[in-house]
Specification:
Order of helices and strands: HEEEEH
Strand order of the largest sheet: 1-2-4-3
Shape: globular
Protein name: Sulfatase-modifying factor enzyme domain-containing protein
Strand content: 15-25%
Number of domains: 1
Distance between the termini: 44 Å
Radius of gyration: 18 Å
Helix content: 10-25%
Number of strands: 4
Number of helices: 2
């Protein structure tokens, strides 16, 4: 049976979770990075309320369940930063891990993600 290596987080905690809480979910990223998530309850049924023209109040159901079987969503705790985008990008296109400059890139949002039209 084949198994993937367990990713190891080597980035300083302050770069991906500056205000840690006991129930944060930390998911490792390529290149030693990580992202912090919070779990939120997702209603199973939309509330019975009139729809306002031009707005959609659809229900959101999460793929995860808590101990009582209620649907849960994982929500990013912080805005994605440049290093996180670069680490995932390097992994997806097979290039080397980006040079880490936590002082300038670790807390800044990416300039753009994806292609511009």
């Amino acid at each position: 049976m084949w198994a993937a290596p367990v990713p190891v987080v080597t980035w300083p905690t302050a770069q991906y979770n500056p205000n840690p809480l006991p129930d944060d979910l930390i998911l490792p990223l390529p290149c030693g990075g990580a992202m912090a998530f919070r779990s939120a309850t997702a209603p199973a049924q939309p509330e019975l309320a009139p729809k306002v023209a031009g707005r959609d109040f659809s229900a959101v159901g999460g793929p995860f369940r808590d101990g009582q079987g209620k649907p849960r969503l994982l929500v990013g705790k912080y805005e994605v930063n440049r290093l996180q985008v670069a680490a995932v990008g390097a992994f997806s296109n097979g290039s080397a891990c980006p040079r880490r400059n936590f002082r300038t890139d670790g807390s800044r949002p990416p300039r753009s993600v994806g292609r511009r039209p």
